[in-house]
Amino acid sequence: MKILVAVKRVVDYNVKVRAKADGSGVETTNVKMSMNPFDEIAVEEAIRLQEAGTAKEIVAISLGIAACQDTIRTALAMGADRGILVETEVELQPLAVAKLLQAVVDQEKPDLVILGKQAIDDDANQTGQMLAALLGWPQGTFASKVEVGAGTVNVTREVDGGLETVALKLPAVVTTDLRLNEPRFVKLPNIMKAKKKPLAVFKPADLGVDVAPRLITLKVQEPPKRQAGIKVDSVATLVDKLHNEAHAI
Ligand code: AMP
Questions:
Q1: Full-prediction pTM beyond 0.70?
Q2: Which of 1, 40, 65, 195 could, after both became Cys, cross-link 111 (CB 3.0–4.6 A)?
Q3: Which co-factors does it depend on (predicted)?
């Protein structure tokens, strides 16, 4: 079985995100960038399937600027076999990403595509679903358990009311939730080995995909600063304030 894993380069989850001074977007200059945490979980799951003898090859793919190569190298250091970068300076929106992934799927013919449930920068939670729709493949989103059988994959999903298990026919699209696994740390020797693994670079035009944005960002603003709280000396004062000042009760 061949697995394609999508890995997005995003602002590191430990960094406090700031809007650019002109409000045109999020500041990324001199900001630590990392692999989207849900995509680390996707890579880990693919590696576990390979270690279990279920998967033969893992291909990691990232789409964006040249620096996305670093994200692919991280996936290769974790254990993916080879990488694909679809390089563009255009800001990619989920539909463009899904179309590019569809074109790569047509070439690579994987049995399973694993993505994160969402990217922590745009929080769109759209790409996996759009890709499944474009391919006409079944999808198992928000996966907390993935069990591959003969030509099938059972995906346990985290839904509002609890857990739901769906049986999908392969090929299929799976998106990962937080509880699926705990990604491994990358070991130094593996970082060195990853430098030698193959990494192919394409442009969107090579894949025949128009990546022009369909949405325009008008303005990016930071949320208003929260006022400092106060301490009250009795429950009676608290109730009084909630009633007469906050009008909350
Ligand atoms: P989103 O729909 O933007 O929240 O992203 C969901 C998932 O799609 C991410 O967790 C990634 O697995 C994948 N994805 C989205 N954009 C990219 C990208 N530019 N490069 C690689 N993977 C991406």
A1: yes
A2: 1
A3: AMP
